[in-house]
Amino acid sequence: MAPASRSAAPGKSASGLVADPGERSWQYAPAPESRHVVAIAPEYGLFVAGEFRPAADGATFVTVNPATEEPLTRVAAAGAADVDAAVAAARTAYDQVWGPMPGSERAKYLYRIARQLQERAREFAVLETLDNGKPIKESRDVDIPLAAAHFFYYAGWADKLEHAGFGPDPRPFGVAGQVIPWNFPLLMAAWKLAPALAAGNTCVLKPAETTPLTALLLAQVCQEAGLPPGVVNVLTGAGDTGAALVGHPGVNKVAFTGSTEVGKQIARAVAGTGKKLTLELGGKAANIVFDDAPVEQAVEGIVNGIFFNQGHVCCAGSRLLVQESVADVVVARLKRRLATLRLGDPLDKNTDIGAINSRPQLDKIGELTKAGEAEGAQRWSPPCELPDRGYWFPPTVFTGVSQSHRIAREEIFGPVLSVLTFRTPDEAVAKANNTPYGLSAGIWTDKGSRILWLAQKLRAGVVWANTYNRFDPASPFGGYQESGYGREGGRHGLAAYLNV
Amino acid sequence: MSVGIEAVTRPAPERWAIEPGDLATSDAALRQVLHGLPGVDEVGAAQRAAGLATRSIKKDAKLQALDMAVAMVDLTTLEGADTPGKVRAMCAKARQPDPGDHGVPPVAAVCVYPDLVGVARQAVAGSGVAVASVATAFPSGRASLAVKLADVADAVSAGADEVDMVIDRGAFLAGRYGAVYAEIRAVREACGPAHLKVILETGELGPLDNVARASWLAMMAGADFIKTSTGKVTPAATPPVALVMLAAARDFEEATGRRVGVKVAGGIRTAKDAIRYLVLVNEVAGPAWLTPKLFRIGASTLLNDLLMQRSKQLTGQYAGPDYFTLD
Amino acid sequence: MSESPPRLAVRKTYKLFIGGAFPRSESGRSYPVHGENGSLLAYAAHASRKDARDAVVAARKAFGGWSGATAYNRGQVLYRVAEMLEGRAAQFATEIAAADGNDAAGAEAEVAAAIDRWVWYAGWSDKVSQVAGAANPVAGPYFNFSVPEPAGVIAVVAPATSSLLGLVSVIAPVIVTGNTAVVIASQSRPLPAISLAEVLATSDLPGGVVNVLTGLTAELVPVLAGHMDVNAIDLTGVDPPARPPLEQLAASNVKRVTYGNEDWTAKPGTQRLMSFLEIKTVWHPAGT
Hints:
- The complex is a heterotrimer of chains A (500), B (327) and C (288).
- Chain A has 500 residues and is an alpha/beta fold.
- Chain A is built from 14 helices and 18 strands.
- Chain A has helices spanning 80-98, 103-119, 121-132, 136-158, 185-199, 213-224, 239-247, 260-270, 295-307, 327-338, 359-374, 406-409, 425-433, 448-457; strands spanning 43-44, 46-48, 51-53, 60-65, 70-76, 175-179, 202-206, 232-234, 253-257, 276-280, 286-289, 319-323, 378-380, 396-399, 416-422, 440-444, 462-465, 484-485.
- Chain A starts with 42 loop residues before the first strand and ends in a 15-residue tail after the last strand.
- With 327 residues, chain B is α/β, with parallel strands linked by helices.
- Chain B has one domain (44-316): Alpha-Beta Barrel (TIM Barrel).
- The two termini of chain B are 22 Å apart.
- Chain C is α/β, with parallel strands linked by helices and 288 residues long.
- Chain C has a single domain (30-285), classed as 3-Layer(aba) Sandwich (Aldehyde Dehydrogenase, Chain A, domain 1).
- Chain C has helices at residues 49-68, 71-87, 89-100, 104-122, 128-132, 165-175, 191-201, 217-226, 243-250, 271-275; strands at residues 30-34, 40-45, 134-135, 142-150, 153-157, 180-184, 210-213, 232-234, 256-258, 277-285.
- A 5-stranded parallel β-sheet of chain C has the order 7-6-5-8-9, sandwiched between helices. In chain C, strands 3-4-10 form a 3-stranded antiparallel β-sheet.
- In chain C, β5, α6 and β6 (180-184) form a beta-alpha-beta unit.
- Chain C is globular and about 95 Å long.
- In chain C, 47% of the residues are buried.
- The mean pLDDT of chain C is 95.
- Chain A binds chain C through residues 104, 107-108, 111, 149, 152-153, 155-160, 163-165, 424-426, 448-450, 452-456, 473-474, 490-491, and chain C through 71-72, 75-76, 79, 116, 119-120, 122-127, 130-131, 141, 143, 270, 284-288.
């Protein structure tokens, strides 16, 4: 493993491969992005009715940088009274301003927000990395550009809903209550707000407890874009805030992204209330590699599938299903490739693997990996130096895993890959589908007909062939079965927010 | 980090893992081997190359990279209008790229047409800079085998340390792999003590699958280096092409125990480009390839940009072109 | 106390817009343009058949890059055009008030409508294939899908009146999907078209995607209608009685022909957007 800035032991290069004796190895010097690009205030309020204000009871909580455990700032904790106020503000804005507003005007607000995300991209990227722990190159190259693109895409639907295939005059629900997770904080906010607003709803957004900051900066952008007060409201807080929002009678539509366990709780809470619900929950995706796969790219796809964003991805390719005839070769190449991953300071531009988002998440990953060992799978990580402070977990591969192991069934949500084998395409399908989840899957083969056959057979809402973890605002995303219902992105993503 | 003649000593035959007698060399047999290689997904390869291009190389890492890059340059002039005077001027620069800073290493080699090898030899004598010559009806490769071998013989007898041959792309694209293989073998023989770089002319080969196949074919036939381009055709070297060739060299070593070098040439004009290629070498082939013995950059104008960037790293100020010599 | 004389304005020269540049007509001709009230506004270039030929060459050259760009990229460029239009709203209001004879408020309203119209079209770039494309459920083990693709170089005869709103309403739907355009501006009201070209030139729109010719419609349209490297022609700005011979000419290379003189103030449907698309259908077996 290549830590961000340490000299290699004599005779050994940073990547672990042995360099020519007598040749110096080449270390990448630290290349830190400056954290002063973004100004973090000492305290943040809730964003309700167009302004920032403290919680009604003054409650606050601290958010930390998971790479260092250093506190970043203090943020308001919304209570029941704040949820009331936010929902009321959203209702007023819907009835008086946003509901009657023509789509062409709504579109232009969304375009302004999209533009601002582009203009202030660097600030947002640094803030995201500080609050979430993900490498700056991911915030910069993936999260923030996709968030801006999402607003651009849905801005373009706001004034042409009659062409979206939902009837000549599809109407919104009213007030949407939206609860999002910590793994892609700004992007998840964009995935929720953009289609809801384009369709004509107003929103109350509850960002995750450990990652409130980019949502608050987005609220500032909404303010600066002139978005009418109450159209977007941001309530920072913990699980109880989310529960209060979801349960509030003034909310017409609930959208949730998070764990399957909490998704089920929400479905129960909403049952019988008439509220519309969409859920985007967990997954245990199979990344299927055939004997005729383009091997070099397949190895990249495996790495990207489970180690992108430290594995904190609902659609992560957490089960490698490799055809038995090539299993040894693929695993050997995978291990060699993992030795070049760089784990360390997320603000370093050369870091590939950042911090785990929180202590509880780190504990959960630890617990499941111990279970994996206890169940008899073989555990391997590249040699890795973990920083002393912060929440860190090295990329980990389990081989000799079978379907009945916990690490093959339960979502770990960390940089841990379970490797299983299969013999035939039929067997690959059976094993891939043998899960209550159904969010995503990957297929690696040179044969087009096999890709299309498998795509038809796999019970997964997103199938990636010869690629993995590709997202686009035009491409619908969502799961089957216990991975949730409803789609985000694309024309289909409007359905969640139109009362048709 | 000078190269020296020892770097170009012909490898002993027993180090070649695939002897001519071992491998059936008919078109059909070679097709089995080459078409049996795993495919290359073009989009995935481009994505990986683009990802590695975001590596941020700063400060002492950048200085080290710039020095490495200078030492890996094959300073090249391959023009119809080349004269002994032009070649001598270039060789003087090759020995001493920056007269104002003797800390700058000499380049790895100079690269000229066979009829100017003698001039080049005299001009670089005693400096450790090798003399590379193109041959085999460079750049098109369209001539009889006899003519191509005579071309090689001229270069070698004039004292070339290294020979850069071109493969017969027409034969390759027509599937006549046996002919391509045989030609490389024959040139390898004719090189004698000189080391052989095989130019694939990747810009004419089409998809990356063909780049991988041509790389393996050349390595199996005994190439010491595989090289992207003649520099006379666009596109020349590109990061995805280099990625495929570096991966092929890495995998060839794994399969046979023999390390083959990679040379990128054509269109590499800036230090930024050069450093991106070094990152590819480091992370795809591995740090063992970060030496002029196994990685070269064929270039002419690149050298001054490397020197300008080096100057900026050392002084903190942006340099101007007037402070560096033209060939 | 004597007043200083009023400052003399620097008058704009109105040239053609071809390949991203502003050349004069190769014929060296120009013609006077008068406002609705009869006053002389300026001279506009009087384009020749050779200018038309050059414009088609430029449009064809630009087609590969523009149609090959991502839909997202085209949407971004068109949105940028809207930003530039907004910045020049006052200038356009003055120009169309003089050309079309509206009062100031009417002209401002028309400019605002033109900008919003452009924004509407910008948002279509990454949605057309979701609305016009399909996965087709054929009766066999095949995956079958249809995607719309841009037809190529489109000749557009802009409406004779409505010098800005009508103009953007016929150009935007052509280029947002990846086509390139050769536009014949209104003969009597050409000046806003050249000002629009200035906006396009400063909006990251690649040269050649839109080319604007000013001059005599009756001279220029037949050249484009019969041109063998033009894929489709929109005859909106041609009077209905004059259309039949042009449609005859268009048949020489089986051009797609469209026309329609709508109420430009009404919200457009998708008919114009879909007119310049070819539908490509692909089959692939699905089997292990």
